[in-house]
């Protein structure tokens, strides 16, 4: 969604990201890079309708003359609506010549993550004055093997019902909740084998998919 109603806040975020110094190979660094401010110039210039009309006159003359005007611009992708369930899909492949190669390095991810530095200043379902949008981890999918073959396993937290999340899903209401991780027991699931594991085991996995539920 492109917001043009307030250019002054177009590149502002819900929480200050200037102080962020995300660690390499972390999910925070991935989010920071994905939502960074980009400059569109040279071959990436933006087609400007206003500039084109100013240069060519009324719209009905533009197509016939084909004198489109491109201009330098700034681009930033931010979250405008915080979801009840946050799903993060890590790109675990890279191009090696004409082939695809799997990326096996560990990406650090937390039990509780704050999306506020990656949300627009006017995030639609965040109460005015709130500068935190917190999520608690409840599921991880891991892949072992290569690009051609492998095996998927999962880590899932068994926990009590989250009434706040139910209200958010069913009624779209957002109220302050606990800022700590939702309590529960983690399990590792591989085909028909299920066994309890520690949270440290979960956080050391090579995550492919991450599932978070909203706290506040």
UniProtKB/TrEMBL annotation:
<dbReference type="InterPro" id="IPR038765">
    <property type="entry name" value="Papain-like_cys_pep_sf"/>
</dbReference>
<dbReference type="GO" id="GO:0005634">
    <property type="term" value="C:nucleus"/>
</dbReference>
<dbReference type="InterPro" id="IPR050164">
    <property type="entry name" value="Peptidase_C19"/>
</dbReference>
<feature type="domain" description="USP">
    <location>
        <begin position="1"/>
        <end position="215"/>
    </location>
</feature>
<dbReference type="InterPro" id="IPR001394">
    <property type="entry name" value="Peptidase_C19_UCH"/>
</dbReference>
<dbReference type="GO" id="GO:0004843">
    <property type="term" value="F:cysteine-type deubiquitinase activity"/>
</dbReference>
<dbReference type="InterPro" id="IPR018200">
    <property type="entry name" value="USP_CS"/>
</dbReference>
<protein>
    <submittedName>
        <fullName>UBP16 hydrolase</fullName>
    </submittedName>
</protein>
<dbReference type="Pfam" id="PF00443">
    <property type="entry name" value="UCH"/>
</dbReference>
<keyword id="KW-0378">Hydrolase</keyword>
<dbReference type="InterPro" id="IPR028889">
    <property type="entry name" value="USP"/>
</dbReference>
<dbReference type="GO" id="GO:0016579">
    <property type="term" value="P:protein deubiquitination"/>
</dbReference>
<dbReference type="GO" id="GO:0005829">
    <property type="term" value="C:cytosol"/>
</dbReference>
